[in-house]
Amino acid sequence: MNINKTEGRITIVAVPVAVVAFAVFSIAASRIGATAIVVKGHVGVTSTGETEQRRVRVGTGFSEGDTVRTEVESMVEIVFDTGHTVALGEKSNVVIQAMSKTRGGGSRSIFGLSVGSMKSLVRKLRSKDSRFEIHTKSAVVKVRGTPPFYVKAGEDGSTDVDLTPGERGKVCVDGANRQVCLDPGYRTTVGPDGDPAEPFAISADRLDALNRALSFSSEKKAATDAQTGALVNHLARKLSVPTVSRSGNDSFYENLENQYDIGRGMHDDNSGSTADPYVSGSIIINTTH
Amino acid sequence: MLRKFVTTLIVTLCATGIGDAVADEKGTLMFSVYGNYGSWNADSIDNSGGQSMVYSQLVYDASSWGASVTMTYASTSYDTIQSDNSFNVSGLTDTVIGTYYSAKINDVSIRAGVDLIVPTGKNSFPLDERQSMITDDVNSDLMLLNHFGGGLSFRPHVIAAVKRGRVAWAAGFNYLVSGSYDTSGDLENDTYDPGDKLVAVISANIDTGDDQFALVTLSFTTAGRDTLDGDDIYRQGDVVALEARYVRNWFDLFKGTLGGKISMQGKNDIVGTDNSITSETGNSNGNIMEIFFSGRRRVASDYSLTGVLGTKHVAANSYSMGEGLADAGRDVVYLEPGLIWIVDSKAYVTAKLRYATVSDYQDDFSPEDARYNVITLEVGMVYSF
């Protein structure tokens, strides 16, 4: 009998423990982890139900419902378990509205960007019920796996969306009454209470500016490579025969310098292009021209 | 010894690299052709001339290696008061075949390559033609091309670059192994062998902030002795040059560069009264200072306007009038509007018109002050296959 009593106690205790454990496990299993991998300046996070803002450092984790704020000249780059990466620019405020797995094995990542800029790299979404959305005051930006794209929410409620060049991908922007979808290399703008404009191409200058303003750590490495590469090219034009460059793949400065060098440098007493008046060494590559 | 070592090293690097790279990479083939017409004349003295050129380049660029062939056809003609005869030369200039290989070892970017300069140009001039050539270095501001051909030469180079913090550093050098050639064609014992030349460069690309950077480059050039029929006759003085450029987006859709350069050259070695080569008594090379601003304004997605405005000052050298080598220097002001047209993703066209005034002062090379007007028009196209 004692045994039965014991078994009964065990049963009484075990059932709620199992329920709680299952619930905890289920919740844990449905959550998506997110971690800050790059932090610059002052970045704070406030969780649901809290009033005090905690400072974000490299390694800080984020949960659904968190509000992330960046101050002037600050940024944070966050990587998710799903492989998505988000960079939040200076003077930005974003709420992580949803960050969970779906029953179908997909994921839901929904952000509310009230002000500021955000750059996102979204891995291909696994299932139809997967979502990656950025909500601003005037638009909802939806994607299904793209090259990096930028969303900027202005203080006046306007929204700029830029999908950077890449092989494939699409970003759709819902306004008040209509939706436009961007192919890589295109952008649109949404007024405070209006609809998204027809997509138009991102200029090389704008792409330069966007990349400089907010870039992933991996892109910074690429920029470093580009900066040293450009310097190598600069010296190569002085030490070797200057060559022309591709229209669509090099900076304007290199194009011009090369153009000039080919006439002048190659004949300049074999000493390279010492007389050229043009500059070289733009650290941005892969712009449209 | 140095010559052999450097040459062997670079040829080996390139051969190995290209062999490996060819198997892995798919590159881009580009062809470019430019037409350039220049004309100049002096206000006060009866000097005038012109030069027309067509130059083309075929480039294969596979990112980690590349090769190019550059050829030019030029026609040059001018009259000066220093000669009764006009100077005329037309034909191909030397052809340059270049190849390079680049690699990255840890975080150091390296490039090595060799240029082979094939003597397809005209390197022999009879005495009467040589006497009609401009000997004043003002010619470098009147015409793009003043060297019509030389001997078979090659020029290996090595460059290394690394980034530390906000600054990317690079250093490199080339070594020109100059081939000899017959300077006259109608005289004996006048085989001319220009001295080999070493150019060493260090450069820094400084990220100064959003949409801007600075570029600072210091170069040093030293040359060996030129020989004529085996006898030393001349050595060019060493050159030290410092360039600085500041590049930024000055405002929306307008990129521009403010640049400057200072160049100083030491004394040449010349044949003295005892027929031995010795340092010249003065310095026949004046210092050079140049400052310019260049910019581009994008007016449409396919068109940009370009412009360059600059000035150059060549200081007087240290000789006095009458010593035979006195050069009073010159001042140059140039303006160069142009445009770029992006035809499509494979082709672009450039055009520019350059106007310059060259104020050359009275000296042992010029009997009186002369102000030259120089106009150059260039149109080019680059096509990627």
Task: Write a structural description.
The complex is a heterodimer of chains A (289) and B (385). With 289 residues, chain A is an alpha+beta fold. Chain A has helices spanning 2-30, 204-213, 217-239, 252-264; strands spanning 34-40, 43-46, 54-55, 67-70, 75-80, 85-88, 93-101, 107-121, 131-135, 140-143, 149-153, 159-163, 171-174, 179-182, 186-190, 200-201. Chain A has three domains: 1-30; 32-206, Jelly Rolls; 216-289, no CATH class. In chain A, 26% of the residues lie in helices and 29% in strands. Chain A has a 16-stranded mixed sheet that branches. Residues 24-29 and 247-289 of chain A have low confidence and may be disordered. Chain B has one domain: Beta Barrel (Porin). Chain B has three helices and 23 strands. Chain B has helices at residues 2-24, 127-131, 139-142, and strands at residues 28-42, 48-61, 65-79, 87-92, 95-105, 108-118, 153-164, 167-176, 181-182, 191-193, 197-209, 212-223, 225-228, 231-235, 239-251, 254-265, 269-271, 277-279, 288-298, 303-314, 330-342, 347-360, 370-384. In chain B, strands 1-2-3-5-6-7-8-11-12-15-16-19-20-21-22-23 form a 16-stranded antiparallel β-barrel. Chain B has a six-stranded antiparallel sheet with strand order 9-10-13-14-17-18, with no helix packed on it. The longest helix of chain B is centred in the first third of the chain and has 23 residues, at 2-24. The radius of gyration of chain B is 22 Å and the shape is globular. In chain B, 35% of the residues are buried. Residues 13-24 of chain B have low confidence and may be disordered. Chains A and B meet through helix 2, helix 3 and helix 4 of A and strand 1, strand 2, strand 3, strand 5 and strand 6 of B.
